[in-house]
Sequence to fold (315 residues):
Amino acid sequence: MKSPVFLEVLARDGAVQHRQRFEQLPVRIGRAYANDLILDDPHVAPFHATLEEQDGRWVLRSGETRNGIVVDRRAQDQVDMQGHTEVRLGHTRLRVRGVDHPVAEELADNVSHGWEGALPAVSGLALASLVLLADEWLGGDSASDLFTLLLGTFFGLVLAVMWAAFWALLNRVLAGSARFGRHLFIASLSLLVFVLWYEAPGILAYRLSWPVLDRYSDLLLFIPWALAIYFHLLTINPRLSKRMALISAGFYVVASSLTLIINYEETGSLASKVYMEAPWPPGLRDTQLSTVEAFIERTDATRSGLDALREKAER
Fold:
């Protein structure tokens, strides 16, 4: 076995939290100060285990401990530490690596390091201000004064900043840096997409004569927020893109399911609307205009069908 040997303390997801180098064996591991590797874990014994070399292999032997060395949820007195073997001492996960252990290839740095700090934060604030001001103006009436518009915009900005601050705090705890500016820019882009997407289901439902899009439009409105959560999570840890996508999809499924349940409890229907309620201009429709004669023919056919059903019910 080649020296030196490295003992790695792992997080639950397998990431290395701490790596310590030892020039020779044995290595004593435990909570006492007389050990070579001291673990600040109350579930670790003062002299919990010893890493030794036996017949050219690394072996971890249990010491004076009631918890033992746990591998695959089973306590053992001796563990062969070759390959990718991970053990748990108390609540601490350990792994052994040699100096000749191969490492993965260097990853391409695709992160835009210039898009950090004040630049995305200022850009996000400006974008959010424009979006909120435009939304307040379009959604208000002719009597709305400038103060009312600015007040609504201000409260919207406060919510956007609080949303970004929450993700920045999570970024700080999980990744060591806040990246508030980038999270604020993501929040602002999400706000823009949401405002533009808000009317999309109603327009498509009217144009294509698909009322189901408008009746279940609340489910479609969760899509921008699911995407926002995905990019926030991706900012925290870009290496776990698939896991972040699953979390975002899970948010969408849960939010949509709760919406359907609430709709059914309140109205007895899964839909959030009874009919299309937006007064869009007729020229927006994609269907051809119907003649009076065709309309009368369809009406007569419908009346005949209803008469037949009524006669059948009377029998």
Observations:
- The longest strand covers residues 16-22.
- The two ends are 95 Å apart (CA to CA).
- The chain is about 50% helix and 15% strand.
